[in-house]
Amino acid sequence: MKPRVIRLSTTPTAEALAELKLGDIVHLDGLMYTAREGVYQRALEEQANIPMELPRDSAANFHCSPAATIREDGSFVMGAVTATASFRFAKWLPEWIAKSGAKLIIGKGGMSSQNYKDFFVPNGAIYLSTVGYGTGALLGRGVENVEAVHWREELGLAQAMWVLKCNNMGPFIVASDMQGNCLFERENAKIAENLERVYEGTKPAVLKRFGETDDRSDEVIG
Amino acid sequence: MIPINTIQKTAETLMDKAAIEIPLDYLSGLKRAAETEDGDLSSFVLQAMLENYEAAKQDRRAMCGDTGCPRWYVKSGNDAQIEGGMVALETALRRATANATNGVPLRPNRVHPLWRTDHDNNVGIGAPEIEYGFEPSAVEGEKADWIDLITVHKGGLFGTDYRMLFPSDGIEGIKRFYLDCLVAFGKRGLACQPAIIGIGLGGSKDTCMVLGKRAACLRTVGSRNSDAKIAALEDEFIEMGNSIGMGAMGFVGKNMVIDCNIEVGYCHTGGMQMSVHAFCLSSRRAVARIHGDGRVEYRTDPDWFTDYQRRETVDWDGHTILEAAE
């Protein structure tokens, strides 16, 4: 069965978000901005003024550094865009989502269902995952224009806040819903049923590592 | 004498090709995987990737937004001479990396590990890595007057691990660590599978990592180790990886491993070092041979692991020892 494909605004209504199901494919229209550790630190820890009107201009936060460059005349060359793994940003997201009014957090690999229930659902936000993860050329095609690059001097090209005008940009996969369910956890649970069989005929290493035991007084041998 | 301008110009073309054109051997492997995949979501992902490779070539844009960490492998024929010497070659490769980062464009990924300084060109302390190999003439009486430039833009913060195993761990221990790596890094697709898995066995800690990385990046899909028993192990490991039940992005599926390449090196008698590496859905590599007369031939097979690189044919005291299984 092929997944269904849906066009969605980067300033989506609550009704549009409520209709999305785990595993739906989404293509986006409107303005999207990149924000990751650099932007979060600057906006939340250093309390710098966010250089956009959020969420009026955009409610879509992309965990991304684009493969892009700025020409000498100040114009932008946008090549491919691919997301970076989002679980590393859980520390900042509760405050960021509340402050920015973001409804779409877009990245790689999703977050935990606990995260979704704790700070996505209460703010009416969902998580969209990129596909692959390597559909950088397809996503690059969906970027109609680079509207601005904020904090380029302060954060460098990779961490700067890129404002992208999206036109049918996709594919993305719906990885959380309004109940806080998590697509990746659902898939992981199915795969886990098979693991015992796959591991048959293997054995643990004779020398263990910390992490395989949390007892730091353990001698880790045998 | 190989002109230095030809080296820099060729290197810039290679940067472009590696970032944009998926090598045919990996593409064919992924197409076969897409035909067999029956997980709804995994299947959608593989189709999207196949479309993506086409889009990259049509638009001449990088196939993935994370353009990895460009690095260089230089294999020099024993008789090659480079205008300006090896120092000029290193300068040319660093310049080509910087120019292509802005030209393609690539993402300026390389930063200082502590101060996060970014020159916006993928060049910095120790970056890009440049590694060397040397090769005798393939034909007696002919001069090996050429160099092979190989660039690999390996992505991924996930999918790699090293472990000191011991002879008593045996093949069961090797299998356990292999599965642990695939399952741990495959969850949520962090390893960007299905991938070419490279495994290094033996050597020392550093050479074990180098062997595994080269097995992933410098051998092609379908190649087999010259030792028949190791080649059989490679086949077995592909099968095992694809029986986990995990596919692209960590969704339910049956394609995790496009190929598994194993390289070995002699190690300490008490140890059995093992490293695992994943060359991802964007398995970026490009190769060119530059001849002494200035001719340039492009290809995608690094052809790195010759008998000479494995030192199998280098004798001592007049004896040639063959390592392959009897």
Order of helices and strands of chain B: HHHEHEEEHEHHEEEE
Q: What is the element string of chain A, with H for helices and E for strands?
A: EHEHEEEHEHEHEHEH
Strand order of the largest sheet of chain B: 2-1-3-8-9
Q: Provide the CATH superfamily of chain A.
A: Fe-S hydro-lyase, tartrate dehydratase beta-type, catalytic domain
Please give a structural write-up.
The complex is a heterodimer of chains A (222) and B (326). Chain A is an alpha/beta fold and 222 residues long. Chain A has one domain: fumarase (Alpha-Beta Barrel). Chain A is 27% helix and 25% strand. Chain A contains seven helices and nine strands; from the N terminus they run βαβαβββαβαβαβαβα. In chain A, 45% of the residues are buried. The model of chain A has no long low-confidence stretch (mean pLDDT 94). Chain B is built from seven helices and nine strands. In chain B, the strands form two sheets. A five-stranded mixed beta sheet of chain B has the order 2-1-3-8-9, covered by helices on one side. Chain B has a four-stranded mixed beta sheet with strand order 4-7-5-6. The longest helix of chain B is centred in the first third of the chain and has 20 residues, at 40-59. Chain B is globular and about 55 Å long. Chains A and B meet through helix 5, helix 6 and helix 7 of A and helix 3, strand 4 and helix 5 of B.
